[in-house]
Amino acid sequence: MTELPAVPATIRRYLDAHDRRESRAALDAFTQDATVIDDGHEHHGLEEIRRWLDKTSTEFSYTRTLVEAAPLDANTWVIRNHLEGDFPGGTVDLGYRFTLDGDLISKLIIAP
């Protein structure tokens, strides 16, 4: 298996907090004016992202396995995760496109 590149600390911090279902810690990884796009819905700013995190951390139970990580440029990373859980379909591979602004996430797009 090919070794994955070192993922920036901010992205690891977000993913680890989300795995632990710690919405507040996950939220701390975002800029004040960040945007998250997930399942066709856009969430702008920390309050909307907090509500999204709270919902996604309780809606389904799942495990996440990091499959792929690649930088597109100095501020943009694509992470591919394999999820298994009690959501419709039971398994899915999702791409997470992170745009960083310094040490924080300014945009996150989650899509198959």
CATH class assignment: Alpha Beta
Shape: globular
Order of helices and strands: HHEEHEEEE
- How many alpha or pi helices? 3
How confident overall, as mean pLDDT?
Answer: 93
Total number of domains: 1
- What CATH architecture do you see? Roll
Radius of gyration: 13 Å
Task: Give me the CATH fold name.
Answer: Nuclear Transport Factor 2, Chain: A
The low-confidence runs, each spanning 5 or more residues with pLDDT under 50, are none
How would a textbook summarize the main sheet? 6 strands, mixed
Helical content, roughly?
Answer: 25-40%
Strand arrangement across the biggest beta sheet: 2-1-6-5-4-3
Tell me how many strands there are.
6
Span of the ends, CA to CA: 22 Å
Oligomer: single chain
Secondary-structure content class: alpha+beta
Structure, briefly:
With 112 residues, the chain is an alpha+beta fold. It has a single domain, classed as Roll (Nuclear Transport Factor 2, Chain: A). Helices cover 28% and strands 48% of the residues.
List keywords for this structure.
112 residues, alpha+beta, Nuclear Transport Factor 2, Chain: A, 6-stranded mixed sheet
Describe this structure in words.
The protein has three helices and six strands; from the N terminus they run H-H-E-E-H-E-E-E-E. It is of the alpha+beta class and 112 residues long. It has a six-stranded mixed sheet, with helices on one face. The chain starts with 8 loop residues before the first helix and ends with a strand.
